[in-house]
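Take just one protein record:
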Amino acid sequence: MRNLGIAAVSAALLLALTYLLDPFRDYQLATAAAYLCAAAGLTVLIGVNGQLSLGHGALMAFGAYPVALVQNELADRGVSAQWTLAVSVLAGVAAATALGAVVGVAAARLHGPYLAGLTLVVAVAVPSLATLFGGVLHGDQGLSVYLLPPPAALGPDFPFERWQAWLALAAAVLTMLLLANLMRSRFGRTLRAVRDDEVAARLAGIPVARTRVLAFVVSAACAGLSGAMFAILAQSVSPSAFALTLSLNLLLAVVVGGLGSLAGAVWGSLLLVLLPWLVDTFTADLTLSPDLRQRLAGNLPLAIFGLLLVVVMIAAPGGVQGLLKGVLKHVPQVLAPAVRGRRRSAGGLDDRLQR
């Protein structure tokens, strides 16, 4: 109930925020929410269960392509209604969950670099399927996504970016609510037990292999939902949008935000959106050649993110969320002397008044 209350308050605040922001900022907020779905699922997989994945970009692709295929197919058949978007998103989540189950079964007995290598192969191989099945997926060109305008009840002048933000934020809030409850449930304690000591967990009667597979399935479903949201935001899907760089960015976001913390996934997702925008704003004022500007736009955010990761690991191993917790923990200690001084002054004043 506490998580449900937090989710309801957060949804109300975010809904109000979308009315205060301009369309571009709404689109940035929607992008951060789409990233959050995948980052939160990756937090459960890595931070709570201890499995490393470098292939979540491929899982997002499996969530995005069904959205394009189903939406376009229904539109070609003359089916045009808002409910078709929910069907397409569910199809994307189901496809990503199926792939996550296959990868999870294969990775159930792998650890460390072997698991990372397997997921890396998935991240590299899955985008090439668009070329292999070019007749359906249109290769590197990708697919456009048929989307209806916002519902007529919202008004004729309702910004489409705000409607996209509503969809992405609803997905993010739902993901955070379900994962927060899962982490506090018996299954969440099982995930942490397997992460801390597999031998002890096995001796306690916990099915280690099944737990690892289920963790991968949960994380894959979140990645599929994230990919579906990106298909809605970009209104197109292509292999280049789900390259290995996306998987690395998600991993960096989870670690920098705070490994094992859903709140840390929020900070990491915001960094994924704000960092490239800040770099573009900074380089826009510099006199650079078009070629150099293009190279910086593609590589400088990743380089800064990597440098930030090194700094965070040295200065604050708990990430941004751990740093905030440490600061908030020391606030009462800093304020305590002032509070005691005020109480002493008030007590002395009372004594003088009584005399």
